[in-house]
Amino acid sequence: MTEEIIIAGFGGQGVLSMGKILAYSGVMENKEVSWMPSYGPEMRGGTANVTVIISDERISSPIISSYDTAIILNQQSMDKFEKSVKPGGILIYDPNGITRHPERKDINIYTIEATDEASKMGLTKVFNMIILGGFLKLKPIVHAEYIRKGLEKSLPKRHHNMIPENEKAIDRGKEIIEARQLLN
């Protein structure tokens, strides 16, 4: 099993954190992992993306140009990465702020209303964990116990009190992800 993922959106949406938690979780589960972030000079509001590869085998190169899964959190990222999903792959996106929805017919497309759900939960900081939960429902590439370990490793100790809320958000993401277009 090898899963090649791109997570892309604005800085401040937790793009890099989501990738880091996923990567640490894979490491904790003794998988081969690559985590490669890319971001502009702005701390918040600029574009950011991270490539995560999790595999049972050695990873030959962390540099890839096509992905099994794309998690898209803004329009600029949709424009840039929709075409990079491998045929038969998955594109997950939060429709909030998306003006042009994905158009490809050779991939599976899912929506997750994470912005609205995080607001309903009163925890806007767990937006990215809702997205992560939706992804993990579709591709359970790491087990839940390792996601918790990934959260513990990734979050500063002063934020460990937020781990239960993050886990709740992951579970909620698994409940609310919806298929928009599935291949036959």
Structural summary, described in words:
It is built from 6 helices and 7 strands; from the N terminus they run E-H-E-E-E-H-E-E-H-H-H-H-E. The protein is an alpha/beta fold and 184 residues long. The protein has helices spanning 15-28, 75-81, 114-121, 127-138, 144-154, 163-176, and strands at 2-10, 32-39, 47-55, 67-72, 85-93, 108-111, 178-181. It has a 7-stranded mixed beta sheet with strand order 2-3-1-4-5-6-7, sandwiched between helices. The radius of gyration is 15 Å and the shape is globular. Strand 4, helix 2 (75-81) and strand 5 form a beta-alpha-beta unit. It has one domain: Pyruvate-ferredoxin Oxidoreductase, domain 3 (3-Layer(aba) Sandwich), CATH 3.40.920.10.
The share of residues in helices is: 25-40%
Please tell me what the overall shape is. globular
What fraction strand? 25-35%
**The CATH class:** Alpha Beta
CATH architecture: 3-Layer(aba) Sandwich
Number of strands: 7
Return the domain count.
1
Q: What class would the helix/strand composition place it in?
A: alpha/beta
CATH superfamily: Pyruvate-ferredoxin oxidoreductase, PFOR, domain III
The average pLDDT score comes to 92
Distance between the termini: 22 Å
Strand order of the largest sheet: 2-3-1-4-5-6-7
Count of separate DSSP helical elements:
6
CATH topology: Pyruvate-ferredoxin Oxidoreductase, domain 3
Low-confidence stretches: none
Radius of gyration: 15 Å
* Sequence of secondary-structure elements: EHEEEHEEHHHHE
Major sheet size, sense and barrel closure: 7 strands, mixed
